[in-house]
Design a protein that fits this description.
With about 110 residues, the chain is an alpha+beta fold. The chain has 4 helices and 4 strands. A 4-stranded mixed beta sheet has the order 2-1-3-4, with helices on one face.
């Protein structure tokens, strides 16, 4: 009888799979994927197309911003100097910062998180 009750209780303890929560909202929630912040003069309309067109497969989340001033105010630790600005995050920290889209693409093609 205890075996049946124990089996029933274990079955009730199943936890649904959810997205991992990053330490910081800009950080990646996935150990094998980057998170990317793009601060541009105008908003990109399709980040997935940008990833596909540039053959980038190691970015899970893109955060788009159009205001350098607002972004620096909200995330002072970024210390962005100008726009466009691109910041790559892993699950714990900034791993790359550039003001060149070409340099960003090169970095993402040559590097993988963890």
């Amino acid at each position: 009888m205890w075996l049946i009750i124990g089996a029933f209780l274990v079955g009730c303890l199943s936890i649904p799979e959810t997205e991992p929560t990053p330490v910081h909202p800009l950080f990646s929630a996935h150990e094998n994927k980057y998170s990317l912040l793009m601060v541009l003069e105008t908003e990109k309309t399709d980040y997935n197309k940008w990833l596909e067109d540039n053959e980038i497969t190691n970015v899970k989340t893109i955060h788009g911003r159009t205001s350098l001033e607002h972004t620096n105010g909200e995330y002072k630790f970024l210390e962005l100097e100008k726009s466009p600005a691109y910041v790559v995050f892993d699950t714990k920290d900034i791993v790359y910062k550039t003001y060149s889209e070409e340099e960003l693409i090169k970095f993402l093609k040559e590097n993988n998180p963890n």
